[in-house]
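re: that chain from earlier
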Amino acid sequence: MPLPPPPDPYADLADLVLNVARLIRLRTPAEPDVVPLTATERQVMRSVDLDPGCAPSRIAERTGLQRTNVSTALRGLEAKGMLTRTGHGRTVTVHPTELARTNLTVLRGAWSELLGGLLGDIDPGTITRCTETLARLEQRFAGSDRPSAS
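^ sequence. v structure.
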């Protein structure tokens, strides 16, 4: 009988993050006022929300998506009224619209209600530390907070 693999906290964390994200999406109520987005559109919108006025090349860099996929998502988001593009050629910048801000506010409210109901008994400081750790991880994936070489 083979031995179980040794514990791996990084693999365990990745597994849990992926599963919790899936469960949050499944349990987020379908709000009539929320514009449905594809997975790629969600990634692009998150990048635009975090960095309004960014260039499409920065979105591709930050999300790890191919430029052609970013362009397709930008066209779809623009058609849905979620963002605007200004400029021409290499000077294009992308901005969220009021509809995008409203969409995000409704979703954040639903997520807060969902997680508050599940985690209301946990110390808020613990939630804050977990959020800070995940934010740092996201920044490092985006390349904006790389650890220094020792």
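Confidence is low (pLDDT under 50) at residues 146-150.
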